[in-house]
Inverse folding.
């Protein structure tokens, strides 16, 4: 058994080391999965750079999602069987050939489901499904804004909102990505590296015109987003990609800039406008509402099997190219889901 250990924050070439892994027997409620591929998530970049608060102290094995086969079961696992091919959320530990994980984040998948699709369903689509269905309760005809719409979660949110019949404004950081999000169904695409998204939407539709906003960038993007929110609107914040910047060095100044960029809000402003600012964190849902995590994962696998959603796999890397995969994600080159195959 092997795993990529995160041994040092910073530069991706020096951050990871392939080491032998000593895995305990699966605990109560856990299964052991033999991993065929693991997913790359933007939170992994944040963990590598030292910005991810929930990340265990180093050396540690990071990684949020794996696809593979169940080879062992701990006590009290009644809904899964040894030998099943599954997609799984892991609470870290995913960059490994084997991982123990709680059965609530594990869902069977068909043998012919593409590994990248399975991984996108586990993290990006279940996050988007939770945000769209549970947190934001999207309605037909609503005008919504999705930040970083070409990314993994962005692609998933676009597909979720399209199913609901929403009118979608979406941002992305290059002309290639703009083409991609148009093809995914974004009605009003904005290249926010060329044009301020707030000014664009204000000119197109006015302030207070968005019924729902999905924000993964944080800081002043949230502040501007709130100005675009209509009465009765909801803004979900589920990431702060802006903190990563384009350097491998952790910067307290950038963190503070993003933090102050959020601005200050009073509850009365939300009450007065019947609005909501909602946080989404799937780790917390997994820890405190595991049945909801299981339901979201089961529902997105069902939607995929019925042909109602179609995850996009942007690139597949070999395990030996893990550092390159990290750079690709950090440098904003990817669309859809990235995965790493053993
Ligand atoms: N809260 C949760 O439970 C949860 C779960 C999953 C993911 N997330 C969050 O959701 C977001 C998307 O995750 P993902 O894994 O699907 O990643 P992703 O969207 O595929 O990749 C991140 C994208 O963010 C955009 N971006 C904007 N500013 C950036 C910056 N300063 N540095 C790097 N990228 C920047 C880039 O797209 P452009 O080039 O188009 O700007 C980049 O491609 C991340 O913020 C992640 O942390 C949260």
């Amino acid at each position: 058994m092997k795993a990529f250990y995160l041994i040092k924050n910073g530069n991706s070439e020096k951050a990871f080391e392939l080491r032998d892994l000593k895995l305990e027997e699966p605990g109560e409620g856990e299964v052991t999965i033999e991993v065929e591929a693991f997913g790359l998530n933007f939170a992994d970049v944040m963990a590598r750079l030292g910005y991810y608060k929930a990340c265990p102290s180093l050396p540690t094995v990071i990684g949020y999602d794996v696809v593979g086969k169940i080879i062992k079961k701990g006590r009290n696992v009644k809904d899964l069987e040894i030998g099943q091919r599954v997609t799984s959320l892991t609470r870290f530990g995913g960059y490994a050939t084997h991982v123990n994980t709680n059965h609530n984040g594990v869902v069977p998948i068909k043998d012919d489901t593409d590994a990248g699709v399975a991984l996108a369903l586990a993290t990006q689509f279940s996050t988007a499904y939770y945000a769209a269905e549970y947190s934001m309760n999207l309605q037909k005809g609503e005008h919504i804004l999705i930040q970083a719409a070409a990314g993994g979660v962005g692609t998933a949110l676009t597909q979720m909102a399209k199913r609901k019949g929403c009118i979608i404004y979406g941002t992305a950081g290059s002309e290639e990505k703009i083409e991609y999000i148009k093809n995914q169904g974004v009605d009003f695409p904005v290249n926010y590296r060329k044009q301020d998204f707030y000014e664009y939407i204000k000119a197109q539709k006015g302030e207070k015109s968005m019924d729902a906003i999905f924000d993964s960038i944080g800081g002043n993007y949230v502040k501007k987003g709130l100005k675009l929110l209509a009465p009765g609107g909801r803004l979900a914040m589920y990431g702060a990609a802006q903190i990563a910047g384009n350097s491998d060095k952790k910067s307290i100044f950038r963190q503070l800039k993003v933090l102050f960029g959020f601005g200050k809000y009073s509850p009365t402003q939300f009450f007065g406008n019947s609005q909501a600012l909602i946080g989404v964190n799937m780790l917390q849902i997994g820890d405190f509402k595991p049945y909801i995590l299981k339901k979201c994962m089961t529902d997105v696998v069902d939607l995929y099997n019925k042909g109602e959603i179609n995850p996009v796999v942007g690139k597949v890397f070999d395990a030996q190219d893990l550092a390159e995969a990290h750079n690709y994600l950090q440098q904003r080159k990817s669309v859809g889901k990235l995965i790493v195959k053993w």
